[in-house]
Input
Amino acid sequence: MRGNSSAVLMQNNDTEVIEKIKSGDNSEFEKLITRYSRMIFSLSYRLLRNVEEANDLTQEVFFRAYRFIDKYNPEFKFSTWLVRITYNLYKDRFKTKQVQIIQLTHADDDDRPEEQIADKSAGPDERVEKSLKSKEIVSIINMLPGNYKSVIVLYFWGDYSYEEIAEILEIPVGTVKSRLKRAKGFLLEKYVRLLEKWK
Amino acid sequence: MEVNDMNCAEVKKSIIEADGKFEKLAVSAATLAELNSHISSCEKCASLKRRMIEMTSAIALDRVPETPGLAAEISRRIFQPKQAPVIVQSEPGFFEKLASLLGIGREGFSPAFSAIAILLVVGAIAGYLYVKSLDSENGIIAVNETNKNQINPEVPKKQAVAVKENIVTPKEEQKKNNVGIFTVSSGKLAGNVPADFSGRLSVAEDSELKFNYKNAVNIALTPGTRFSFVGAGIELESGSLSADVYVKTKFTVATPEAIVEVTGTRFTVSRTNGETEISVTQGNVRVTDLVCCEVSSLTAGCKKSVSTKKHKKEPLKSIETIHETSPVVINAVTSEIVLHDDTVEVKSDTKVINLIDKLKNDNINGGK
Output
């Protein structure tokens, strides 16, 4: 993770725990659950935006991790492995769900989400405005195509580096960078327009 | 990046990449200075930079709901041993009763499965017996020695058996080979009839031959009509044929001048002296004349004559209303007629022929 100095220490600790689990001490897995369940839930929630579904996805992630712990490769961070499982399970759900896809490079479409938003919130004070801005940006992120959304979620909320995101999503670092650039550019454009509407 | 070439587009790229914080960029001090210089002199880029920082902060404000007890829930799901399912003994249902009656216990296959399997077996046996009875009723040629003798006492046993093999499973064969199933209701044939009913056949001079095709078409042939069974239809050499297609099915009547492909109608086809006449009682008939390359439609109450001689260079003969002359007058829906030049193209490619006992009992061999 970007700028996390305790990551190495935690990774060493994880390796020890996993070794114990592999040698038969299954109760050690609870440590990993305690350590990472919140992180995985947050990621799941950011991807799904539904508490129940995120809860369910988180449980499924740990269930799979426990079941396939023998397949874990200690070369990678355990948290990264968990996030990868999360992402793969999310992808499976994403495939079966109808998701509204929006173009990242459009010029003059009329049916824009921020236009609906602007009418709802005339004259908010600063606090409310910040909250609204956050919600609206999140809603725009939520509408991104799955491959862009995953990158944005991992970048902004997962605090992962380009390399880690590439590892989790199993795509080249260059692809991560280009997706991030496009997605962030799109979000910035939307955000600027949103503010213009609010003026 | 060349410092001197920096413009708004490049600055925007850097703003996006660095989330508005240039210090995050892995660039030289000179480039960083140029970026900051650009921002201080360009209000548009400065505004964009502020917006990017604001947006990033707004994203960071997003909060995830608390989920107390999530870790415990996950642990419970993973480590809690599965309880043995509780089996509730209910009142026996229909299938269970049936299975019980048939002596099949609860320990083996499920009662429903067992009962269904038994029903299927019983159904298969009943079906087999039914097919056997149909064979007997419909007079499939040479199914047994008695029938064989009735049709043609001179047919050698080997040949008869070969015929039997071809038609022993009428429905499957019909599907596979597009074989028609003809069931004679009355009438008799003239002359020696081949055991497999192949080749040209003639209706006895003192008899009108009536038969049914696949429970979908009633067909009547006038006395003396010469014809042959071809695939899912009849090739008419001379005489008159009336058909009532009361269930939509593919049925073809071919003459040297025309092919009448029927999907559901009532019509008559007659052929004398190289001329084919088609008359329709009701419904519509589409006529495709390949000689003149024209398509016309015959409506109910109309007739059409087709002759290869007449059609050589003449346009399609006009449709004229006819008076009721056909021996079979019935309702019609639709039909299609395809005319060929001097040839008869039969789309079905296999032998027909199943005739019922009625045909055999009508003394076909001694018809004349």
Notes: Chain A touches chain B at residues 26-27, 29-30, 33-34, 37-38, 41-42, 45-46, 51, 54-55, 58-59, 62-63, 66, 130-131, 133-134, 137-138, 141, 156-157, 181, 184-185, 187-188, 191-192, 195 (CB under 8 Å). Chain A is about 70% helix and 0% strand. The longest helix of chain A spans residues 173-198. Residues 83 and 156 of chain A are 14 Å apart (CA to CA).
